Structure formats: structure tokens, C-alpha cells
Amino acid sequence: MDDPIPAAIAVELLHTESIIHDDIIDDDAFRREREAFHAKFGLDASILSADFVLGIILDIASQYSDLRIGRELSKAVLRMSEGEYSEMLVQEKSGKISPQEYIKIIEQKTAALFQSSAKLGAIIAGGKQQMIESLADFGLNLGIAYQVQDDLLDWEQKASLERALGAERATLESMSHEYALSAKSSLVHLVDSDAKDRLMELAEFAVRRRF
Q1: Burial of 57 per CB tally in 10 Å (0-12, 13-18, 19+)
Q2: In sequence order, which residues have a C-beta less than 8 Å from that of residue 29 and are 6 or more positions away?
Q3: Domains and CATH numbers, the chain
Q4: Can you give the pTM of this predicted structure?
């Protein structure tokens, strides 16, 4: 079995870079009460960081003989970029979006990376196709539940996407729990184990966290 650590590093690097660019696009000077990367190091360095990080990710992917690793990382980048662009369009139009449109955006922007993370783990572990698909579904639903909960925690700040959402807080709370339940249901085909229990706990934590 291949070492999963390099792939995990690639995922984390991709996540970090997406945060840097998200703060630039949203013109946020702070993230979690800390100065944003572009505010501290400048716009030019922030933009160039994407090229640098992409080079690292490509190098990591090339170390795996299984071509699915690089392909999955590429898919995550494409979907996250599409999600970010969709949110930009919402910001420009300053209109309302439906809960379904909201879910579609975060499915790409946030949940795509959760999905790829879970799928990469299954692939590197040598899992059969059913396991890969089950964990991919788990990651997707977990990512949606996590982001909805994240938006609920920031509800009072009313970021651009939440401002455009034509739904009440209670609707989002229901959606968060619904997707967390779907995440747990995705694991039904996996054999009972400590690892499966940890994943179930992770799904529950996604909607009960307060930070």
C-alpha cells in the first residue's frame, strides 16, 4: 500500500491555497480573527503562491504510480474553481438564490475537496470500487454538512453568499443535519470497525461543533 501522507499534504496545501484566494476575492482582511495572507504579504505574493503550491501538488501526485491520485486532485481543483466562480457571479448580481443553488455552490467550492480527500484514502488503501464510491459519497455529504454549519456559525456576519440565500436559519439547520445523516448512511456498506466509528463521529461533529 502506498503512503497516504503525501496525498494528505497535497490536499491540505490545496485547501490552504483556496483560502488565500477566497480571502482575496471576498476582500477579507481577516480570517478567524487573524490577518489574511494577502493583507500580510501582499497581493502579488498571494497570487504567485498558487503557482508554487500547484507545483508542489503536481510533484506529489507524480510520486504515485496510480494515476487516479493525480486525476482526483485535478478534479478537486477544477470543481473548487467552478464553485468559487459561481459565488462570484452571485456577488456581482446581488440577487437572491434558492437553497438548491446554495447547495450546488458549496458542493463544488467546499465539499469537492472533502469528497476527494475521502476518495483518495480509499484508493490508496486499495479499496474495492464499492468502498471508493461509498467514501466519496461520505466525503461529499460531510463537506456540505460542514459548510452549512460553518455558515450558521457565521450567520450574524452575513457573508455575501448567506446574504443572497433566500432561506431562514432553521432551513439551514435542517439541511445541515440532513446531509450529516446522508454522510453516515453512505457508510452502510463498510464493515464495522474503529475506523468506521470515527467517520460516524466525524459526521456528527460536523453539525454540533461551535467553532
Answers
A1: buried
A2: 35, 36, 39
A3: 5-208 (1.10.600.10)
A4: 0.90
